[in-house]
Write a structure and sequence with these properties.
Elements (H helix, E strand, L loop, with lengths): L1 E2 L2 E3 H4 L3 E3 L5 E11 L8 E9 L5 E5 L3 E4 L3 E4 L16 E2 H5 L3 E4 L12 E10 L5 E9 L11 E5 L3 E2 L1 E2 L2 E2 L4 H9 L4 H9 L3 H10 L2 H8 L4 H9 L3 H10 L2 H10 L2 H10 L2 H11 L6 H4 L6 E2 L5 H8 L6 H4 L1 E5 L10 E6 H5 L18 E2 L4 H11 L3 E5 L5 E6 H8 L4 H4 L11
Parallel strand pairs: 1-7, 3-8, 17-18, 20-21
Antiparallel strand pairs: 2-11, 3-4, 4-5, 4-9, 5-6, 7-8, 10-11, 10-14, 11-12, 12-13, 15-16, 18-19, 21-22
Helix pairs in contact: 3-5, 4-6, 6-8, 7-9, 9-11, 16-17
Length: 430
């Protein structure tokens, strides 16, 4: 990410948001943040953007931002979720909730402000080395002078500002604090903690989690617990959650539900999202076809090394799937044209950026086939020391890829997630 690395959130209001092709998508209306307890970084989650064409307000994650310049914000991709933005518990908006709020400060640099309510004028965000936009400082008004003079502004470090929590300004909310605490936890650890909550609180938290987060958590639960939670959701939201899940996990979950409900959910899903799920559900559960993801890194041979590395950097891509690039004749959507071979990520790192990946293929790695058994897949990974492998049909078209973590998930006992990392240990909240 290039461009500005430190700014006040108020400056973002009204900025034009553009896709990578520079076409205007909308304008920034607010910044969504998550407030963490003191000692932990509070950070921006994304922007509320008002679309130009229909005035709908949508949410754009900060990780989708390529750069912030003085007059506009440029996204990494022009593909954004068009769902209407809805505030969720545990999230605050800087302009809507924080600016104008009354707080107090214990900054030793401004003793005259101690014990008094001060008003927030703006919030500073700074880009960290991990690409997170962290709240670092707050501009506050001191005492407002009389006779229309301009108020005096003071800049206070965020950790000296008190009175704002995940529940809001001057408010406490156990559910909001719990959800805020989930933010830096791995989905597997959140899943364990979530399942051990009292039923009523678990239901409340589930309702308030955003769809993408809940999908990540569901994928870390055993399939019967996934089914239990999805049954508690409104049918339309359940379909939205399934769209956010990896197709192979969504197919496994639907296989646990009654056939009539699974059919309804598939019909409610976006056709582009449900199509790969339907294909996976046709494979026998004990085959490689049922384990694979239809969305690995797939490119044509004319792709450059630089372009391939840029795609491999996608933060939404699991590490295992980023380790291998599959090269095919067009079309590159599964099922693809003829499969040509693969390129290892380490190989890409050793080649000139302008080289074409078609010239550095490993054509000799044998593929897996959709009707291969799980044992065959295990032998494949053990033989070639890989964490990901291509899955072909009998005509040499790439259908997807199978990752070693998905294979282990199915080869371990069914209750392995419930038993935890070391069966017999008491569950923890970390």
């Amino acid at each position: 990410m290039s461009g500005i690395t430190r700014l006040y959130a108020g400056r973002l209001a009204g900025m034009v948001v553009r896709g990578p092709d520079t076409d205007a998508i909308g304008r920034v209306r607010d910044v969504v943040v998550i407030i963490r307890p003191h000692g932990q970084d509070s950070r921006a989650l994304g922007l509320v953007v008002e679309m130009i064409n229909n005035k709908r307000r949508i949410f754009v994650p900060m990780l989708r931002i390529a750069s912030i310049e003085p007059k506009d914000v440029t996204l990494i991709t022009g593909s954004v979720s068009l769902r209407a933005f809805r505030p969720r518990t545990g999230e605050l908006q800087i302009i809507g909730d924080i600016i104008g709020a009354k707080v107090h400060t214990d900054d030793p640099e401004f003793e005259k402000l101690h014990g008094r309510a001060v008003e927030i004028a703006d919030v500073e965000l700074e880009l960290s080395r991990t690409r997170d936009w962290i709240i670092t400082r707050v501009a506050v008004f001191g005492e407002r002078p009389k006779f229309g003079r301009r108020p005096v502004l003071h800049t206070v470090p965020w950790y000296h500002v008190h009175g704002i929590t995940a529940g809001g300004v001057g408010e406490s909310n156990d559910t909001a604090e719990l959800i805020a605490g989930f933010e830096d936890m791995r989905p597997a650890d959140v899943a364990k903690q979530l399942y051990h909550l009292p039923t009523a609180q678990r239901t409340e938290v589930t309702e308030e989690l955003d769809d993408e987060k809940l999908a990540d958590i569901l994928q870390e639960l055993s399939e019967d617990r996934q089914a239990e939670l999805i049954e508690q959701l409104d049918i339309e939201r359940a379909a939205d959650i399934l769209e956010e899940m990896d197709p192979d996990d969504a197919a496994d979950l639907l296989g646990e539900l009654p056939h009539d409900k699974a059919d309804v959910l598939l019909d409610l899903m976006d056709p582009e999202e449900s199509a790969p799920v339907r294909r996976l559900m046709h494979f026998s559960p004990d085959t490689v076809g049922a384990l694979m993801t239809p969305e690995p890194l797939i490119m044509d041979p004319a792709t450059t090394v630089a372009e391939a590395l840029a795609m491999a950097r996608n933060p939404d891509l699991p590490t295992s799937l980023a380790s291998l690039i599959f090269v095919v004749r067009p079309p590159t959507a599964t099922p693809t044209g003829k499969y040509l071979g693969c390129v290892h990520l380490q190989k890409l790192l050793r080649e000139p950026p302008s080289s074409l990946i078609g010239g550095i293929l490993d054509p000799d790695l044998p593929p897996l086939y959709a009707d291969d058994t799980q044992e065959t897949a295990a032998r494949f990974f053990a033989t070639y020391n890989l964490v990901c492998g291509p899955v072909l049909d009998e005509n040499g078209h790439l259908l997807g890829a199978v990752a070693v973590d998905d294979l282990l998930d199915h080869m371990l006992p069914e209750d392995w997630r419930d038993a935890g990392l070391r069966p017999g240990e008491e569950p923890t909240n970390g």
